[in-house]
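Protein 1 of 2
SEQ + STRUCT:
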Amino acid sequence: MLKLIVLRRDDVFITNVVRCRPPGNRDPLPDELAACDTYTLRQLEVLQPKLIVTLGRYSMARFVGSGPMRDLHGRTKDWNGITCLAMYHPAAILRTPTPEMRRIYAEDFRKIPPLLAEAQQKKAAALAAAAAASQPAEQLDQLRLF
């Protein structure tokens, strides 16, 4: 799927909202999710991602909102200045390998490059604004003359 959008595996960081699989491969409980949240938030602080792509229900609920995946996949939401894109977990595609499910997954995946480009533009604009704000007033006046 990364090849579909011309990204390399080295270009992405994959993590999870829980750090170990619960016993019996059951769904994580709220206290297990909460126990890992500090670590997740610290990772995001260090990595400063341009985009968060949530893969599955639990990461989607944390960063995009709760609700049925069929309604929320492909949607975005801003979380602390970072765009988050909700997507099905790849395992869902393997469990339901229908042409329709593959089409939906590919369609959602194709949203990533424009979202990354938009995030890059926002970052460049913010850096330019910060640089302009740090210029002494007379230098700004000189810049306006040109």
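Protein 2 of 2
SEQ + STRUCT:
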Amino acid sequence: MDCTGVAEARVAAVRSAGTWGRVALVGEGGTTTFDISQHLLRRQLTIHASWTFSAMGQAECARFVVDRKVPLKKLLTHRFKLDEADQAYRLFDTQTTGKGVFVF
């Protein structure tokens, strides 16, 4: 899964998928170029692009993070309380920061 919207990271996500694998692209912005034959067709990949996740998709991601002990503290650059949502969204709309999370 790529959440960055950065071309190199998108290509890395595709290249790291196994044969018959699936890749989710959810990061916005930019363009990306793939070698369609080598990276997609010959490996039978499924690419799913989504602007948002369903509640079910979010639950699956949460389970993935917990099951694999993903080090979120290293991945998240900003933490906000719910009453700081306006400030958080204004900041992230600039697309100049890392990943953020709302904490309760």
